[in-house]
Amino acid sequence: MDVILKQDVDALGLRGEVVNVARGYARNFLLPRGLAEVATPALVRELAKRDSQRARHEAKTVDEARRIAERLEAIELRFDVNAGPSGSLFGSVTATNVADRLWEKEKIRVDRRKLEMTTIKRIGRYTVPVDVFQDVTAELKLAVAPAGHELPAEEELAALEAAEEQAAAAAAAEAEESARAAAAAEAEAVAEEVTPAAGDEAGGQAEDTAS
């Protein structure tokens, strides 16, 4: 069934896009969580109208695009986020978030689909290529920082990320070892059930001889 995303959903689409999903996925996950709504003809028309209105603010010529590109490269957008000690976000920063912030703070309208970025899930500094117009590209700087704090130095950010990767690798190795031990124990239990005890086998042979 067709639904309109109300929020960005990883591996599915961006807010405002019409996507086709399995009916069960929509009814059991997307709709109850407020992530999407059914794409009725009226909503689709309204969405197309909004997109058309937004497009009026985008660059129409190369010269206009170059001016917008200069403005984009002169700024740094900051996102104050909730993050854990390792730097991982409790949430994420998406292309839609960036496009919304550009409009709110700078009154620059950029189609979020023209932001060449993946979902950001760690604090840090990022550079996002923006396809402003044909043959006109800008590099937008982002600062994703813990709310109320400045970003750590690059070396500290790298150390935090490395520590988290090591912890994740250790946890994965431990889980794999536990699974291997459980499988071995299960195999041993099955073998004991299938193989008769030595005393039982000898008793059975004696009965056969006696008969």
Write the layout of secondary structure elements.
Blueprint: E1 2-5, E2 18-20, H1 23-30, E3 36-38, H2 41-55, H3 62-73, E4 76-81, E5 88-93, H4 95-106, E6 120-122, E7 124-133, E8 136-146, H5 154-194, H6 198-210
Parallel strand pairs: 4-8
Antiparallel strand pairs: 1-2, 1-3, 5-6, 7-8
How does this structure look, described?
There is one protein chain. This protein is an alpha+beta fold and 211 residues long. It folds into three domains: 1-56, Ribosomal protein L9, N-terminal domain (Ribosomal Protein L9, domain 1, 3-Layer(aba) Sandwich); 58-151, Roll (Ribosomal Protein L9, domain 2), CATH 3.10.430.100; 154-193. The chain has helices at 23-30, 41-55, 62-73, 95-106, 154-194, 198-210, and strands at residues 2-5, 18-20, 36-38, 76-81, 88-93, 120-122, 124-133, 136-146. The strands form three sheets. The chain has a three-stranded antiparallel beta sheet, with no helix packed on it. A three-stranded mixed beta sheet has the order 4-8-7. Strands 5-6 form a two-stranded antiparallel sheet. A hairpin with a 2-residue loop joins strand 7 (124-133) and strand 8. The longest helix is centred in the C-terminal third of the chain and has 41 residues, at 154-194. The protein is flat. The N and C termini lie far apart (73 Å). The model has no long low-confidence stretch (mean pLDDT 86).
